[in-house]
Design goal:
Layout lengths: L8 H10 L2 H10 L4 E2 H7 L4 H13 L3 E6 L2 E6 L4 H9 L12 H8 L1
Antiparallel strand pairs: 1-3, 2-3
Helix pairs in contact: 1-4, 3-4
């Protein structure tokens, strides 16, 4: 299990890639079906240079895979790449809903 302070490059890359609204929207689209780069650009109203930059970031994070067939580039969502991020986030789930202690309660106790 990843520790709370784990900042491996892969985890940093995943969260950096997910930190952009356009890239999250692209992943949402790709979660339903693979697409060509041109289809993705058109659907998200991005220029080809812009879409290629976003694709490179997602690819570097391992969140998508690109495959070239002839002259056409296809991209697909790599769900397995989210496992590291999900594992890191889920370690906090044990505390969700089990603790009545909030910042407000803590401050009230200090007074």
């Amino acid at each position: 299990m990843l520790s709370i302070t784990d900042h491996t490059p892969a985890l940093d890359d995943i969260f950096a890639a997910l930190g952009n609204e356009k890239r999250r929207a692209m992943l949402q689209t790709l979660s339903f079906r693979p697409a060509t780069v041109s289809q993705l650009a058109a659907e998200h109203q991005l220029s080809l240079p812009a879409i290629h930059r976003h694709i490179r970031t997602l690819e570097d994070a391992g969140l998508i895979e690109r495959r070239k067939v002839g002259r056409v580039n296809f991209v697909a969502f790599n769900r397995l790449a989210l496992a590291a991020g999900q594992t890191w986030i889920m370690q906090f789930r044990t505390d969700w809903g089990n603790s009545n202690e909030t910042l407000e309660n803590y401050i009230a106790q200090l007074k």
